[in-house]
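Colleagues,

For the teaching module next term, I've prepared a clean inverse folding example: a structure given as tokens, and then the sequence designed for it. I'd like students to try predicting residues themselves before seeing the answer, so please don't circulate the second half yet.
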């Protein structure tokens, strides 16, 4: 271990290429959640909103963190829907945190700990990466075999921020490509991805109360017809644990209306929950599906084509893969994972910007054959 660490330092100081960490990303066929492999063998569910990572702690003793340390404060700096953990009564006081399952919303009370993360292929050894222990009930509804949850948020203890703290040459940036099938790999690529010609950028909006990623759009259109105009400062959020893009009730109603206009003439099918608007699959053909545009300032669009807007549900039925968030939805638009699949997305925290490619499929590529290093 120690040798490996020295080697990684040496290889960097001798003007080698900047360190980069490419981790394979999989889609779980049962839960449709996405996992990355850390240490080459440990699958962690990715969450781009979680304040910190967590994993099942070994039954053997694990390192603990003292109360009132920087990391303990960082793990708790955000308002959390979880109850505050009790102050531990042990001496010295050990840091307790509240990890949360983003699917079931259940909370736990657990010790903050740390671990080493290695990538032998890249000769990278990252020491003292802080995360929380997680008791078994926290794993409910997660993919079988997952050992924990990997935070890729804006929070100080997210993986990319800690990786960059340990290895300053690694920028606080990651590129992500979610695969559309569990039979194919995607990837999370930590560090500076090269500026790909397919990428457009927009500023990240920040909110002191949350660690997730928000961007501003001017409007949302279906088939070039406007559904809603927005202030670019209002913010729409991105989530890897929300399966489908979710729209507030009034936006959803207009959105479906526009979509149905665009699909005029295609036979409808009975709706299949959670979807409301379904069509005869064999009559659709993805080029028939109206394009959906998220319009950014400066004339840039994130365009969503059929592969990211229609979900086949079997029995010659395909459905509009957007959901109604209801009247009480806190946000007008939350971009869900299905709409991000086979799109190259760059979360560049250092430069506070978000990069998006629109579908790689229209360029004859996909997440499984995309070359991040070119
Ligand atoms: C992390 O690596 C160090 C060597 O640098 C080793 O002493 C320590 O036991 C490792 N910690 C864990 C939790 O594996
Ligand atoms: C990342 O790339 C940008 C340009 O694309 C450059 O300005 C920045 O210095 C790079 N950061 C690192 C840590 O290499
Ligand atoms: C962006 O989307 C809008 C609405 O669909 C469309 O009118 C406009 O032409 C698009 N711009 C680009 C550059 O594709």
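(Answer key — instructors only)
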């Amino acid at each position: 271990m120690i040798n490996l660490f020295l080697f990684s330092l040496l290889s960097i100081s001798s003007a080698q290429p900047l360190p980069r960490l490419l981790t394979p990303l999989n889609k779980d066929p049962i839960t449709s959640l996405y996992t990355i492999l850390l240490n080459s063998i440990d699958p962690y569910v990715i969450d781009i909103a979680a304040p910190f990572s967590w994993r099942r702690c070994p039954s053997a003793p694990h390192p603990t963190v003292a109360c009132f340390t920087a990391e303990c404060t960082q793990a708790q700096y955000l308002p959390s829907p979880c109850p505050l953990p009790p102050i531990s009564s042990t001496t010295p006081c050990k840091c307790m945190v509240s990890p949360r399952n983003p699917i079931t919303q259940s909370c736990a009370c657990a010790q903050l700990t740390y671990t080493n993360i290695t990538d032998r292929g890249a000769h990278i050894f990252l020491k003292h990466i802080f995360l929380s222990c997680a008791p078994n009930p926290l794993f409910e509804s997660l993919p079988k075999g997952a050992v924990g949850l990997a935070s890729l948020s804006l929070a100080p203890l997210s993986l990319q921020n800690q990786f960059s703290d340990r290895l300053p040459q690694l920028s606080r940036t990651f590129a992500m490509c979610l695969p559309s099938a569990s039979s194919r790999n995607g990837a999370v690529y930590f560090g500076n991805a090269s500026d790909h010609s397919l990428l457009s950028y927009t500023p990240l909006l920040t909110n002191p109360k949350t660690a997730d990623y928000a961007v501003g759009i001017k409007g949302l259109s279906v088939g070039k017809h406007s559904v809603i105009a927005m202030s670019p400062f209002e913010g729409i959020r991105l989530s890897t644990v929300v399966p489908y893009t979710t729209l507030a009730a009034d936006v959803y109603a207009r959105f479906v209306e526009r979509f149905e206009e665009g699909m005029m003439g295609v036979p409808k099918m009975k709706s299949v929950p959670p979807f409301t608007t379904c069509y005869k699959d064999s009559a659709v053909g993805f080029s028939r599906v109206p394009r959906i545009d998220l319009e950014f300032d400066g004339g840039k669009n994130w365009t969503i084509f059929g592969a990211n807007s229609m979900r086949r549900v079997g029995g010659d039925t395909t459905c509009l893969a957007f959901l109604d968030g209801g009247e009480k939805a806190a946000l007008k638009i939350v971009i869900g994972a299905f709409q991000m699949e086979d799109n190259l997305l760059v979360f560049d925290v250092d430069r506070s910007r978000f990069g998006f490619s629109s579908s790689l499929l229209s360029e004859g590529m996909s997440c499984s054959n995309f070359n991040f290093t070119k």
